[in-house]
Amino acid sequence: MTPILKWQGKVYLFLIFFISLITFVVGDGFSIPSLKDWVFVYFLVAAVLLLSYFSVHLPPKDNSFSMDSAIYLAVMFLYGISLALKVLLISILVEFLYKRKMAWWKHLFNLSMYSLMIAGAFYSFLYFGGQIGEIKTDYLFPYMVSLLVYFLINISLIFMFFVFLERVYKGAFNFGVLFEAMVSYCVTLILSLVLAILLDKERYFGLFLFTVLVIILSVVFRKFIVLYELVSNRANKDHLTGLYNHGFFKEALKEQFSDCKLLKQPLTLAFLDLDDFKKYNDRNGHLQGDRLLTFFGKLLQKAVGGTNFTVARYGGEEFAILMPNTTKEDAYAFLNRLRKEVNDTYFEGVEHIPYRCLSFSCGIAEMEKDMYESEELIHRADQALYYAKAQGKNNVQLYDKHNMCLDEIKFKQDLEALEQQVKFFLSKDVYTYRHSKRVFKYALEFGSRLDELTDHERQTLILGALIHDIGKIEVPRDILNKRGKLEKHEWEIIKKHVTWGREIVAAEKRFDDLLPLVELHHERYDGKGYPYGLKGEEIPKLARILCIIDSFDAMTTERPYQPTKTFEEALEEIERCAGTQFDPVYAAKFIAFVREHYLPLAEMQQLN
């Protein structure tokens, strides 16, 4: 879809167009050459258009670059800026005539940008001792400088244009992207010098030979890309349904999750599970069951046609649809409509299963700003799917934390299981065991007073508080119990406990909700924490709350490497660090909670 050009973009466009007009006047780009020169210009224009069409494609990401810049540079090196600008102008005009569907401002932008790139490269070439009319292979410095200027002007103009379109995001111009662009421009410089030498020796035949060689390269690389995609598809596609497989989907989700988070765009994930597939298989046989999976896969593929959705077979009879730039409400409307269409689509044998029609259950989850990895989105969509099946199947459910509450029996079972894990500290580090129990107690009491938390969130906070330091089981005993300040390398080992803890807790799928608390309770609100340097609301809410509770207990209990603070001193520290280390909202609530429920008791103990 062509982006809408806002007024800022139009101002920027006409500004660089005005500068390019000056370039044409100063560079004599509007002068009328002789008839002989016109013929050569037309041949050059034809070559530019051909090479623009036959771009060179490179695997693995099918990046491509056009060799038209090689022609502009070669012409500039041999004949000067005037002829290069004429070739550019006529090429853009011809392109405008046969690419009528392309937005007018894109043609204008290309003309302006290339003219400024050519002018910048030309004058820098002259400034650093380059001479027009011959190629001096013994002194390549001016050529390299002109290419660098050509490249920098290109990058700068495009970057500014995206700024005005408001489409620039963190990481858009990272080192990897710039390096790839620079490599392609270096290839362009080499080929421009080759072309200039050919033009100098045999003007028309040299141009013909260069164009044919580049076209052959383009065709060969396109064939290579086709073969690469064929092999890639075999690795990425499910052989039964023809949809993407589990592995490809997980990689696509990670990439989309990262992009949508940076761009602050919605991203929705849906899990679909064919209802009563086992019963269908048992009655009709596995071969017919495979035919049903293939049939359903084709239905899904047809349903997402014309969209940017990615559909995959996630495993067994479970399918996944990844929907970038889509809210959960739009996804719900789309999938509920699809569910009804599937109900009305007959497939042999479905009349013998409970609903007597083809049906699926579906769970939907949308990425939220406090999510820090794609696994959280998968977990929520999975929970919503289980809820849909619990509601009687053949329905679509949005993830709602109010509906995903753990029952009390399961909560107690999980609590007992985690307490057994924490007891390992009794033989290694009694302090960490007692610290974990105190943080658990604070979380239990403070969480019960936070009305904005659901029951599920309260239970998650309590369980996460109990197990948050489990990774310290991997830290050597001499570091855990060291008296005095830790050395730098020892501190680096201590910091790893959050990732070690994540690995331990992730071993059991039922504790997936606890992973953010275990891994992120040392992130800081100002982005200076670890392990990822997340900032503000990028940090999950419960991890922000746990950070405050954990820090409070660490400050108010005796530790071998730091002095103990009173409750009042610790609260003053939390208040001072609100907005930097701690979430200011929950810091204020925790301070009020401690002042109300713990300070009176602490003062009484001091009096006694």
How would you describe this structure to a colleague?
- It comes from Bacillus caldolyticus.
- InterPro entries: GGDEF_dom, HD/PDEase_dom, HD_GYP_dom, Nucleotide_cyclase, Rev_trsase/Diguanyl_cyclase.
- It holds the Pfam family GGDEF.
- Keywords: Membrane, Transmembrane, Transmembrane helix.
- This protein has 608 residues and is of the alpha+beta class.
- Helices cover 62% and strands 6% of the residues.
- The chain has 24 helices and seven strands.
- The protein has helices at residues 7-26, 35-53, 68-79, 81-98, 104-127, 141-165, 175-201, 203-236, 246-263, 277-284, 286-303, 328-343, 374-390, 408-422, 430-447, 455-467, 477-480, 488-495, 497-505, 515-520, 541-556, 567-576, 584-597, 599-607; strands at 56-58, 63-65, 267-274, 310-315, 318-324, 360-366, 396-398.
- The strands form two sheets. Strands 4-5-3-6-7 form a five-stranded mixed beta sheet, with helices on both faces.
- β1 (56-58) and β2 (63-65) form a beta hairpin.
- The chain is globular, with a radius of gyration of 32 Å.
Low-confidence stretches: 168-176
As a whole number of angstroms, the C-alpha radius of gyration is: 32 Å
Shape call:
globular
Mean pLDDT equals 85
Which class of secondary structure composition applies to the elements? alpha+beta
Strand residue content: 5-15%
Strand order of the largest sheet: 4-5-3-6-7
Largest sheet features: 5 strands, mixed
Count of DSSP helices? 24
Termini separation comes to 74 Å
Helix content: 55-70%
The total beta strand count reads 7
Domain GGDEF: 265-401
Domain HD-GYP: 410-606
Pfam family, one: GGDEF
InterPro entries: GGDEF_dom (IPR000160), HD/PDEase_dom (IPR003607), HD_GYP_dom (IPR037522), Nucleotide_cyclase (IPR029787), Rev_trsase/Diguanyl_cyclase (IPR043128)
